[in-house]
Design goal:
The complex is a heterodimer of chains A (164) and B (392). Chain A has one domain. Helix content of chain A is 93%, strand content 0%. Chain A contains 2 helices and no strands. Chain B is mainly alpha-helical and 392 residues long. Chain B has 2 domains: 265 residues, no CATH class; 51 residues, no CATH class. Chain B has 11 helices and 7 strands. In chain B, the strands form 3 sheets. Chain B has a 3-stranded antiparallel sheet with strand order 4-3-7, with no helix packed on it. A two-stranded antiparallel sheet of chain B has the order 1-2. Chain B is globular. The two termini of chain B are 22 Å apart. The chains are: A mainly alpha (164), B mainly alpha (392). Chains A and B meet through helix 1 of A and strand 7, helix 3, helix 4, helix 5 and helix 6 of B.
């Protein structure tokens, strides 16, 4: 039974030591350690939440990027198409204009040619008329150079008139 | 949670059941060894004429009891030991301080005091006065060493936390301790104490590490049997008891002295039981730690002593028993390493459970009450704990 009777001395020393250890550790060890642990845990939880949020945002951003890319691609295709169309239309227009101009030039040339031809023909006709009149004058002059011939001619003319 | 409770309960039950078995076996052992060493009662420490005799019970009880010397070993029947300071309070002569070497290992008296060797080493005043012995005994020295170790370790770890900041991964000793700290917080404090757990964390951590480090130091060869001393466990139990009493709320005291919903006749029966159970709690804490550590020390020492007992019979038997004894001792050391941590945990956990009951709020209670009613409609709240106590 000796073992079961506590000694007062050891009891007092133990109590003293325990209380001292408790007070010192509470102030200088447990409180800072528990605080640090708590802070770290909340920090980690926050970081995880933040990472999750960032991941979500990144996902959203990626979707947005994808969308923008798609739009850009569509726009590019549209632009290309339009450019092609514009080019074609410009070429066509140019072709048409060129044709119109050439046509006009051809028409003008033909008209000029015609005019000049007509002018040349008129001149030739006039020349021929003049020559004929001159020839006739000369012939007549020769025939009517004597008085008898003139009388004969007058008489013939008068006959012709009286016959009428 | 209930699984874990169950597990700790089973461990506890085994520990408590095995302790008396071991101590019982040890008593048998002692009787045998006593008969073996019959006629050769003198002990080596006394330096008397003695060859080949070995008194196991004296060796064992010499170790597990407290002492005013730190005895290491004997060389040629002369003890090699450290004499520790003796501090005595005499009701008439007052306080006296001197070295235990003055007693010359109990052979001489000094200043009217002499050393008495019973089951325990005791200083007795020759004038018959009732003196109080505040000596720095072996246990006190061991405790001081452990306290210094504890302070150095914990303050260094705390410094590391401060230095590294909070978001740096723990390293070294800090890393080793952190799981233990979080274990005490998450498995002991939070489930038992609820929202108010932070208030009791310093106490629980101090109790846990104080018991653990002392259990471990006690396992070192030549170490003291500090936590296997009833004065120590009584002190720790009283601390937990006082904390429990002073943190008890109105709800707790109300249920203790005037359990609601109980017929008047039953109240007369129930209230004394409740009050007794209140005091049984710290007593159970005290006995449990004391018995477990004491039993472990006794078993290890007696297994080693068996070598010398057999050697007393014949040299061959002594050497022959060495492997058996060593194997069993090694096994026991591993077991005791486990027990050192488990007992620290159980003490802390039960302290948390008791405080948790004292600070429990009313609305939680209804649910708990129903649960216990399933087992026993009469005892109510304390049933779960008192079951452990019954076994203890």
């Amino acid at each position: 039974m000796d073992l079961l009777t506590p000694e007062l001395g050891l009891f007092v020393w133990t109590l003293l030591a325990f209380l001292i250890v408790f007070v010192i550790l509470r102030k200088f060890a447990w409180k800072p350690i528990l605080k640090a642990l708590h802070e770290r845990e909340t920090g980690i939880a926050d970081s995880i939440a933040a990472a999750e949020r960032v991941k979500k945002e990144m996902g959203a951003m990626q979707a947005e990027n994808e969308r923008i890319m798609m739009e850009a691609r569509a726009e590019r295709a549209q632009l290309l198409k339009e450019a092609k169309e514009t080019r074609d239309s410009i070429i066509n227009k140019a072709k048409e204009e060129t044709k119109a101009i050439t046509d006009k030039m051809v028409a003008d040339a033909q008209q000029q040619i015609q005019q000049q031809k007509m002018a040349a023909l008129t001149e030739v006709k006039n020349e021929i008329g003049k020559l004929a009149v001159e020839v006739a004058e000369k012939v007549i002059r020769k025939q009517l150079s004597t008085a008898d011939s003139q009388n004969d001619y007058a008489k013939m003319l008068a006959d012709e008139i009286s016959m009428n | 949670m209930s699984l874990r409770r169950l597990f700790s309960f089973i461990v506890l039950t085994f520990a408590l059941l095995s302790a008396p078995v071991f101590t019982y076996a040890q008593h048998e052992e002692n009787h045998e060894s006593a008969s073996v060493a019959e006629g050769e009662t003198a002990h080596a420490a006394h330096g008397e004429e003695k060859k080949g005799g070995f008194n196991a019970s004296e060796v064992i009880f010499g170790h597990i009891g407290d002492s005013h010397y730190w005895h290491f070993f004997d060389v040629n029947d002369h003890p090699v030991s450290l004499s520790l300071p003796v501090i005595i309070y005499h009701p008439e002569k007052g306080l006296e301080v001197f070295s235990a070497s003055k007693f010359h290992h109990g052979h001489e008296s000094y200043n009217g005091y002499h050393l008495e060797h019973g089951m325990k080493e005791k200083i007795v005043s020759e004038d018959g006065a009732k003196i109080i012995d505040f000596s720095i005994t072996k246990n006190v020295v061991s405790m001081i060493i452990s306290v210094v170790l504890l302070l150095v370790i914990m303050l260094n770890v705390a410094k590391k936390y401060k230095k590294n900041g909070t978001m740096v991964a723990p390293t070294g000793f800090q890393n080793a301790l952190e799981p233990v700290l979080t274990f005490v917080r998450d498995e002991v404090a939070k489930p038992n104490l609820g929202k108010k757990y932070m208030r009791y964390m310093p106490l629980l951590l101090t109790v846990f590490f104080f018991i653990w480090i002392n259990n471990l130091l006690g396992l070192l060869p030549g170490g003291a049997n500090f936590t296997g001393n009833i004065a120590v466990t009584a002190c720790l139990a009283i601390v937990s008891f006082l904390v429990m009493i002073f943190s008890g709320n109105k709800h707790f005291w109300g249920h203790l002295f005037n359990p609601p919903g109980v017929p008047l006749g039953v109240k007369f029966l129930l209230v004394p039981i409740e009050i007794i159970s209140l005091f049984i709690k710290p007593i159970a804490l005290m006995i449990r730690l004391f018995a477990n550590i004491l039993a472990g020390h006794i078993v290890i020492l007696s297994v080693i002593s068996m070598i010398f007992i057999f050697a007393g019979l014949s040299k061959v038997a002594g050497w022959g028993f060495v492997p058996v004894s060593m194997a069993f001792t090694i096994f026991m050391f591993f077991l005791e390493l486990l027990v050192a941590a488990i007992q620290a945990f159980i003490f802390t956990n039960l302290t948390a459970v008791f405080i948790g009951q004292a600070v429990e709020e009313g609305h939680d209670h209804d649910h708990v009450h129903e649960e216990y009613h399933a087992h026993n409609p009469e005892t109510g709240q304390d049933y779960n704990v008192s079951k452990q106590e019954i076994i203890a």
